[in-house]
Prior knowledge:
Blueprint: H1 3-14, E1 22-24, E2 33-36, E3 40-41, H2 48-55, E4 59-60, E5 63-65, E6 68-70, E7 76-77, E8 79-82, E9 86-89, H3 94-104, E10 112-123, E11 128-132, E12 141-148, E13 153-155, E14 158-162, E15 165-169, E16 177-182, E17 186-189, E18 192-195, E19 197-207, H4 217-232, E20 249-252, H5 259-262, H6 271-286, E21 289-303, E22 311-322, E23 328-334, E24 339-341, E25 352-356, E26 365-379, H7 383-390, H8 392-404, H9 408-418, H10 422-428, E27 441-442, H11 449-460, H12 466-473, H13 486-496, H14 498-509, H15 522-526, H16 528-535, H17 539-562, H18 567-590, H19 593-605, H20 611-621, H21 627-633, H22 635-650, H23 671-681, E28 687-691, H24 694-707, E29 711-716, E30 723-728, H25 731-751
Parallel strand pairs: 20-24
Antiparallel strand pairs: 1-16, 2-3, 2-9, 4-8, 5-6, 7-11, 8-10, 10-19, 11-17, 12-16, 12-19, 13-18, 14-15, 14-17, 20-26, 21-22, 21-26, 22-23, 23-27, 25-26, 28-30, 29-30
Amino acid sequence: MSSTHADELARLLGGRASARSSAQLSGLREGPTVTVAGHGELQLPLTAARAKKLLAFGEPAPFGKGEDTLLDSTVRHTWHFPDPVVEVDWHGRLGGVLEDARSALGLPTTCRLSAQFHSLLVYERGQFFAPHQDSEKDDAMVASLVVVLPCPFSGGELVVHGEGGARRYGGSRTETTLVAFYADTLHEVLPVRTGHRVVLTYNLLLHGDTFHRNVERDTVADAATLLAAYFDTPVAPLYGGTPSTPIRLTYLLDHSYTPRALTQGLGRLKGVDAERAAVLTQAAERAGCEVVLGLADVHEVRDDVSDDEYLLDSEVSLTHWLTPDGDVVEVDLGLGDDAAATTPSRSLRAYASEHEGYMGNYGNTVDRWYHRGALLVWPTHLAFANRAETAPGRELRLLLIRLADHDDAAVARDLRGLLPTWPDIVRVSRPSRTVHGAGAARTAGAVQATELFDLALALVRFVDDEALADALVAPFLLDDLRPGTATNLIGAAETRGPAWAAARVANWFAPDAPWGRHSVSEPWVESLPALCRELAPRSDLAHLVLEAAWSWLRTQIEPALAAAPTSTVRKRLTSLGTLLAAVLGGVSEADDETIRAEILQWCRSAGEGSIADLLVAAFAAAETWDEDHKERAGMRELAPIATAILESRADAPTRRTGDWSITPPPGCGCDLCERLAGFLADREARVLEWPIAKDKRQHIHQTIDSRELPVTHTTRRAGSPYVLVLAKTAEVFEREDRARAEAVRHLRRIQEV
Length: 753
């Protein structure tokens, strides 16, 4: 981040604004008259006898937790009288109280407050309310009003945690005490020590707009200059790379807001937030920028050893934002270093915290989490790029609509603005791949890469700028080309020409392509028949895809054929045989004689042995194909290759009784492996007792186990060195019997082809 410009802007927005999250209003000598149904008018001060009579009509107070309403005296312990049973007469004084609250909370004169009665509360000795935030029970609710009626008591202070620390508000024996605070502010009621604390609570509803206010022209001009400088100054990535100019700035507000409150827009911002937003939006307009309202979560990790709590790590992520249509959508956008704030998060009250002990490289740490409102600012020409980062599918579809309306120049401008973040957007759209770093956006039900690929190909058909078209499709993999995308790939190839299509496929498949990626996956190979069926009208495209698929599959098959035929290797060959059938299915759909001939020639030259396991699995996968499909795939030509190997296995002579020889596997060439090979090849030797040191025993253990040889190995712990005892098992004979029976079964299956 261009920290100098962003930090200077944050300081400028602080200006003369004062932090007002809570305030005590002017006291009232003559307070309201309160009447409780069944009890009558409330007589104050509340003596023990009067309290006993009153509380007979009350009930334990509940509290809200998320969407639930709970009763838990360890969180909230007080008596509650809800709205329907309480009548309050302010004798015409409430209007003055509300005007006093508006002014004290820093709300502009263009607004007014109304009061919605919530409840009468009575706190006895020992009763309290743990730290909490008031739920915003109405879309217009902005603050709470607590009216402490005159009554002798000690303790029971209302503590409001806001900017600059906690503020305590007590009560009075002789006059009504009034405290107003923003609804998102954390607050608590300390335990009452003596007497009774009697309060009325109100929801304060906002009418009017907090946003539109007069601000100093010089302040706006300075802020506009800083914004322009911020977006014009290239910044090097944190972990190295080419410097680039920022695409947005995030300014963190002091208050937290609910997603529901966000729908009210800038006109419902609280206190200093509204003042600063007014400056920033006017400055943004001058600087050619847009401002979007959102919600952010801040996570800070600090070293808890020192008084200053050194910041070890910080993460800021956007959780919601307001769309141009007025909808609030959930997002998960890592803001990285492009978040600035006038008020540091540590000066605010965290909604959660967690302490950790000594962690080796550093001492005790404390994690804190904060909810904060946020203003996102970006140049107008980058608006599309920013929106596309969290909803790329939606935004690309809107571009296609605009192209249909011949808005070509503006679409090209928006796409160019998208290019710096486009590779990250594409990578994030693959849920199986982990993406780190700022700018990684995820949403619930995030659009998949295949859908983005299809949309990008659709745009390429209409984009005149060849460099822009190339950049749109460059970040994709061949793996992203799935059934359903063929129509737009064919259209793009016809628009830009066969050479363009060939170059793009080569880029998507290239093993040294950007982003350090693997371009093909097994599920993609399995989809080849359906994909080639769609690509059949353009045989050149189908051929390019099949060529890449077969090239990749060979790199998987050849190491497996060269490995010792263990159960793991044979299982892998079975899986690869299914993929071979998928490639041949694609060959059949595209009727690609060239790739079919390549595969057949490779299979003929691959030699004997394990290739039979590969081909048997391919025949099993093709068992349900119709005859024409098998013919075009080349299955008829493959059958003799597998048959010859299987017939050799089926006709292998039965091992003579007493022949315990085992074909030695390839060894490392050391003396130990040579000795082991001699024992294995010996027809008569069944047991070998071998005194060798521990590290040498381990080498032999590993050789036997990794090759799955039918030999047990135990150590007789006597003498020095200990004795390694190797013993051949009856599996020497049983394996060959199973192999012959298995070959016969497979021959029958292939003969059905």
